[in-house]
Amino acid sequence: MRKDGFYKKSGLVIQPDGKRGVKLPLRSLRCNYYHPSYFEDEIVIKTGISYLTPTRIVFSYEVYRKGFLKPIVTGETEHVWVNKDLKPVNMKKYRPELYNLISAIFNEEGCV
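^ that's the sequence the OP posted. Answer follows.
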């Protein structure tokens, strides 16, 4: 599921300034390159949640060159749930309705 599809399905609104009281700063990033892409290539990016806890979320990515069956790039980004003061929070306690919604989508969709 693409990230924008995830947001649309969940009803979440992307607010990078954290107006909803929760932010997701990047904790780590991993990327593996297998094949090149070229300037005029059309690419498809598949995104999913591969790991979810009350304090962290990991998004997985697969990048395909249109017409290729195997990904040309795979990767993950790990994020930590924090409040507006950048203090880590347990989403089950801090925003249980949001955590339950994301958890339900994760359990329905699974990872990439």
